[in-house]
């Protein structure tokens, strides 16, 4: 399910980026390049309204998809395993550390000169 949400979010992000690049608040952006057909049929004002509404709708869609996808993430599986390991370590007695005996020192066995 997360894969579907991821694909939808990426698709909406690409479309949002396209909408943002196409519109220009001054009226001379890429919409002027594509404007031959759109300006004749819908007019300049309606084209910018559609692009602005599409931008807001896609931004809201991305926000909703991101918040909704968090509901499908597995809850507590790794945290539960970590807790059980920590509880096991807390209740188990600490292992005794063995002290190594100090090296035995031999008496001075060097021959006298």
TrEMBL record:
<keyword id="KW-0812">Transmembrane</keyword>
<comment type="similarity">
    <text>Belongs to the SecG family.</text>
</comment>
<keyword id="KW-0813">Transport</keyword>
<keyword id="KW-1003">Cell membrane</keyword>
<dbReference type="InterPro" id="IPR004692">
    <property type="entry name" value="SecG"/>
</dbReference>
<dbReference type="Pfam" id="PF03840">
    <property type="entry name" value="SecG"/>
</dbReference>
<keyword id="KW-0653">Protein transport</keyword>
<dbReference type="GO" id="GO:0005886">
    <property type="term" value="C:plasma membrane"/>
</dbReference>
<keyword id="KW-1133">Transmembrane helix</keyword>
<comment type="function">
    <text>Involved in protein export. Participates in an early event of protein translocation.</text>
</comment>
<dbReference type="GO" id="GO:0065002">
    <property type="term" value="P:intracellular protein transmembrane transport"/>
</dbReference>
<feature type="compositionally biased region" description="Low complexity">
    <location>
        <begin position="90"/>
        <end position="113"/>
    </location>
</feature>
<dbReference type="GO" id="GO:0009306">
    <property type="term" value="P:protein secretion"/>
</dbReference>
<dbReference type="GO" id="GO:0043952">
    <property type="term" value="P:protein transport by the Sec complex"/>
</dbReference>
<keyword id="KW-0472">Membrane</keyword>
<keyword id="KW-0811">Translocation</keyword>
<dbReference type="GO" id="GO:0015450">
    <property type="term" value="F:protein-transporting ATPase activity"/>
</dbReference>
<protein>
    <recommendedName>
        <fullName>Protein-export membrane protein SecG</fullName>
    </recommendedName>
</protein>
<feature type="region of interest" description="Disordered">
    <location>
        <begin position="84"/>
        <end position="113"/>
    </location>
</feature>
<feature type="transmembrane region" description="Helical">
    <location>
        <begin position="55"/>
        <end position="74"/>
    </location>
</feature>
């Amino acid at each position: 399910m997360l894969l579907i949400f991821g694909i939808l979010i990426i698709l909406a992000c690409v479309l949002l980026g396209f909408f943002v690049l196409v519109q220009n608040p001054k009226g001379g952006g890429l919409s002027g390049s594509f404007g031959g057909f759109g300006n004749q049929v819908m007019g300049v004002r309606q084209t910018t309204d559609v692009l602005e509404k599409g931008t807001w709708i896609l931004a809201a869609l991305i926000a909703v998809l991101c918040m909704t996808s968090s509901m499908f993430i597995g809850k507590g599986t790794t945290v539960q395993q970590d807790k059980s390991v920590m509880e096991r370590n807390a209740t188990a007695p600490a292992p005794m550390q063995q002290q190594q005996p100090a090296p035995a020192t031999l008496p001075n066995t060097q021959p006298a000169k």
